[in-house]
Amino acid sequence: MELDRFDVRLLSELQREGRLAVVELAETIGLSATPCARRIKALETGGLIEGYQAILNPGRIGLAVQAIVQVKLTEHTDETVACFEREIALLEEVTNCFAITGTYDFILQVYARDLESLSTVVLKKLLRIPNVRDLQSSVVLATVKRSTRVPLGHLQI
C-alpha cells in the first residue's frame, strides 16, 4: 500500500491517541472528515492498523511483577515450534512472545501478581511445555520505556 503524508500523519496521530474522533483527526492532519474516514478505513482494511485497545497500567491492576523469560527448546522441528507456540498462546500471563536468534529460541514477557505467582507460571506452566529444555528468567526492576508505538520516521514524506 502506497502511503502519502496524510496517511503517515493519520497513523502517527492514531498511535498517539486512538480515541480521537474522525473530525478531530481530519482537522489535525488537514483533511475534511469524509476523506479522513475513508483513509482510516483503507488503512484498517490494508492491515496497517490491526486494532484499537486501551493500554492498562499493570501495577494498578495488581500485576506487580514483570519478568522477561528466555526459552530454549530441545529441537527446532516445525512440529516442536508449533506446539510451543500453541501452548504459549493459551497462557494469559505471557503478554508477548518473540522468536529470536542467539542462545535462546524465544523471549517472553510475563506478568504476575507477585514472585510466588511468577514462580508458579515458570515452574508449573512454562517448564511443563513439551520440548522446553531451558529457561532463564529476569525480573524487571523498573520500566524505563514502555510503548506500543511503531516508529514512523522512515515513512516521512
Question: Could you walk me through the main structural features you see in this protein, from its secondary elements to its overall organization?
Answer:
By secondary structure, the chain is α+β, with helices and mostly antiparallel strands. The protein folds into two domains: 5-54, Arc Repressor Mutant, subunit A (Orthogonal Bundle), CATH 1.10.10.10; 58-139, Alpha-Beta Plaits, CATH 3.30.70. It is built from five helices and four strands. It has helices at 5-16, 22-29, 33-45, 78-89, 115-126, and strands spanning 65-73, 94-99, 106-112, 132-139. α1 (5-16) crosses α2 and α2 (22-29) packs across α3. The longest helix has 13 residues, at 33-45.
Key features of this structure:
Alpha-Beta Plaits; Arc Repressor Mutant, subunit A; 157 residues; alpha+beta; 36% helix; elongated
Task: Give a concise summary.
The chain has 157 residues and is α+β, with helices and mostly antiparallel strands. The chain contains five helices and four strands; from the N terminus they run αααβαββαβ. The protein folds into two domains: 5-54, Winged helix-like DNA-binding domain superfamily/Winged helix DNA-binding domain (Arc Repressor Mutant, subunit A), CATH 1.10.10; 58-139, Alpha-Beta Plaits.
